[in-house]
Amino acid sequence: MLLFFAGIKSNAQLDKPPIVITGIVTDSITDEPLSFVSINCGPTYTSGALTDSAGMFKITTADSVNELRVSSLGYQTAFFPVEPGMNQYIEIKLHPLSQQLNAVVVKAKRRYRNRGNPAVELIQKVIENKSRNRPESSNYLQYQRYQKMSFSFDNLKDELTNSKLLRPFRFILENTDTTILPGRSLIPVFLKETLSDFYFRKKPYAKKELIEAEKLVRFDEYINRRSVASSANYLYEDINIYDNNINFLTNQFLSPIASLAPTFYKFFIRDTVVIEGTKCVKLNFEPRNKTDLLFEGDLYITLDSSYAVKKVNMTVNKSINLNWVRSVSIVQEFGKSDTISGWRLSNDNVGGDFGITKESLGIYGQRISLYRNYKVTPPSGDTVFNGLSQVYLPGSETKVEDYWENNRFKPLKPSEHNAYVYMDSLKRMPQFRNDMRVINTISADFVKANWFEFGPFSTFYSYNPIEGSRLKFGGRTTFMFSKKLNFDGYLAYGFNDNKYKYTIGSTYSFTKRTIYEFPVKSIRASYVYDIRIPGEELDFAQSDNALLSFKRGSNDKMYYDRIYRIEHLNEFENHFSYNIAYEVNRSSPTGNLYFNNNNYLQFTNTTHYIDVSKASLTLRYAPHERFFQGSLYRTPFTNKYPVLQLDYAVSSKAIGSHYDFQTLKLNIYKRFYLSVFGYSDVTLEGGKVFGRVPYLLLNIHNANQTYEYQPLSYNLMNFLEFVSDQYASLNIDHCFNGFFLNKIPLLKKLNFRELVSFKALYGNLSSTNNPVDHPDLFKFPTNALGEPLTYTLDKMPYIEVGVGVSNILRLFRVQYVQRLTYLSHPNISKEGIRLGVKFDF
C-alpha cells in the first residue's frame, strides 16, 4: 500500500508543469543592472542561471522552489522568497560590501578564488555545453577550406641586407610586408596555398581531405616539399579549442575550456561586446602559474543559452619553457551557417615568430585557414572515407593563375604575389644554386653531384678494436638519375684486420614517386659484407659513425656478416604496411667471439661460420603518422596514437640453413601526454624463439656501450651480456617539460627540463637452448679466466633507471643512469653519465 501511494505521489510530481521565474538584479545604491550574478534554487541550490548584460535572468524548473540564493563578487549573498508553484517576476537588489570594497579589490589579485567568482561560473557553463558546441557534435560534417601557409625572414638587419654576400639577392629583400608584425618588415620566402573539401564521420570515426588545388614555392632539387609541409602541419596542428588538450609546437597545452581549466587558469570578466551582431562576454584568462605550459588571452562567449565560443584570441606566456619562440598569436572566429545550426569555425589564424635571441634574424611562420559551405548531411556513399586520409585530386598541382584568382577565399597581398615570382627567379641564379648545394651538404651529410651523391661523411672515419682505423666511401643515385630506380653502396677498409667490406643494393619503386615518398611500394635487392656487434641496434644512427667510436668496456666480440637479401615493402594509405623478405646470411666470428662446443681454452671443435636462410614478414601500423624525410632516415613525428609492429621469421634446413627455427616479436609504442606534467614515451615489447639454436640466433638484448644515451637500448648493459629465447620488456621515458625546475627561482632561467627513465627486461632460456643441457650447442662466451660473460635472465629482471635534464643550450640532454640488478657480473658499469641531443620546442 505504501508503495502504491508512493507511486501516485511520484507520478504526480512528474506530471507537475514547470514554473518560470524571471526577474532583474540591480545594485541597491546605483540601481545599475548587474551582469553575471549567480541565481540558484532547488533543494541544494544546484539549479539556476546567470544574469545577462541587462541584469535579467530566467529560470525554468519543476522543483518545489521556496527561495532564491543570489550571489556576486563584491556583493552580499542574499536569499529572496518565492511563491511556490507559480510563474512570477522578481526585482532583486544586491547590497555591495561597501565597507570592505577597497580591501576586496586589492585582495582579488592576491587571493584569486574560484568559489563565488562569476567568471568561473560562466566558464563552467561553457564546459558543460562543450559536447553540443564542438565541431564534431554532428554525425557528419562537410566543409570547404582555403589554407595559406607562409614563412618569412624577420628582423633582417640593415648591415646584413647591404652586405656583399646578399647584394645579388637584393630584389628579394625589397619585397617586404609590414602589416603582420608591428614595427617589423617580413620578407616572404615560402608560400603554400591549398583548396580542400573536408569530410567528417563520427561513427565509425573517419576524416578525409580531398585537395582540389595546391600552389607553392618549390625547391624540389634541394628540399622535399612534402616533408616541409608535413613539418609545418606538425608544428601548427589544427587547434580545436573544445579539446581538453591542444597539441602546439610539439608540446601539449591545456585548453582554457578544458574540464580542469578552472584548476590551472584564472578567469576574469572584462566587458560585454557585440561581435558581428552577437552579444558576447569578454572573458580574460591567464595561468595560475606563469611557468606552466598554458595559454593566456581572451575568450568571447555568446550571451545566449548555447554558451559557445564566438572568438578566441590567445598566446603563450613568455615565462614558459619554450625554445626558439619569440611570440605566438592564435586567433579563431566562429560563425553561424545558413544551412546548419550552431557555431562553426570560420577563421583560424596561427602565427609564430622564431629566433635564437630576441634581436637575432628570425623566421615568422603563419597559417591562415578560412572555412565555408558547412553541411551536416552524409556524403553520397561512405566510400569517400576509403583510403588515405589526405588525397591530392588529379590536376591539383597544375591549376593556372586564373583559377586561383577566382577561387581564393581571400586575395593575396602584393608581397605574397611577388613571393611566387621572385622565388622562381631566385632558383635560376647560379650563386643561389651553389649556396644551396653547400647548405644541403652540411645538413644532409651528403654532397650532391647531379645524378649521384657521395656520403654520409659522418661515417668516413671510425674506429673499433677489430678493424682498428676504418675508412668508408659510399653514395647513391638521386632522383635526377631516376625516380623509380635507385642504386646505392659503399666500400670500407679496416687497417687492423686488413679486410675490405662493401655493400651494393638497388631499389625499384612501383609508383611514380621516389622510393622515399609515402606511401612506398618498392622491391629491393642487396648484398652486404661487413662487421657487426652482437646486440647493437642504434636509433637513427649508424654504428660506424665517428662520434660513436668511443665505447666503454670491452668491445672485442664481433662477427662478419655476408648477406644476400631481397625484400618487398608495401605501405598503404591508412599507414599500415608490410615487408616481405628472404635472405641468406653467413656469420663468421672474429676477435674474442668463438663458435665452439668446449670451453674458452680448447678449440678442438670450433665452427667457423653459421649459415641461416630465412623468410620474414614485418607488419606495421602507425595511424595518422607523419614524418620528415631526411637523407638517410624518415623520421616520424610523434603523435598520440600507438605504433604497432609485428615481426615473424622462419628458417629451415630445407632451404640451406643450419637450423630449423622461428622467431616472433611484438613491439607497441605510444606517447602519453599528461598536459602540464609533460609526456611519457612508453614501449612494450615481447619476443620468442621457437626451435633449438645457438646463442647468436637467440634474442641478444639491445645493449649500448657508447656514451650517447639511446632511449630504446639498455645503456648499462654490455654487448652480448644477456640472451633469451622468450622475453618481455617495458621502457618508459618521461619528460616533465620543466614543471618542477621552472618553479625554482635560480634554476628557472636556465630553462632545463626534467627527465626520468625506467627500463625493465624479463626473460628466460628454456632447456632446449641452454648449452649446459645440450653439449652440441655453442658455449656462451667467457673471458680468459673462463668466467662467463653471457647470461640468462632466469633469476630476476634486468632493471635500470635514470634521471637527468634536457634542453641544455636548448639542444642537449645529460642523463644519470643506474643499474639495479645483476651487479655481480664482471666488467659492468653500475652507473654512468650519458649524453644526447634532444630537439624540442
Question: What features would you describe in this structure?
Answer:
By secondary structure, the chain is mainly β. Among the domains are: 11-109, Immunoglobulin-like (Sandwich); 131-427, no CATH class; 669-841, no CATH class. It has 11 helices and 44 strands. The strands form 8 sheets. It has an 18-stranded antiparallel β-sheet that branches. An 11-stranded mixed β-sheet has the order 13-14-15-16-17-18-19-8-9-10-20. A 4-stranded antiparallel β-sheet has the order 3-2-5-6. The longest helix is centred in the middle third of the chain and has 15 residues, at 430-444. The radius of gyration is 33 Å and the shape is globular.
How many β-strand stretches? Answer: 44
The DSSP helix count reads 11
Mean pLDDT: 83
Uncertain segments: 1-14, 98-110, 599-605
| Rg calculated over all Cα atoms | 33 Å
Helix amount, in percent? 10-25%
Structural class: mainly beta
What overall geometry do the principal axes of the alpha carbons give? globular
N- and C-termini, Cα separation:
71 Å
Sheet-strand content, in percent, reads 35-45%
* Biggest sheet statistics: 18 strands, antiparallel
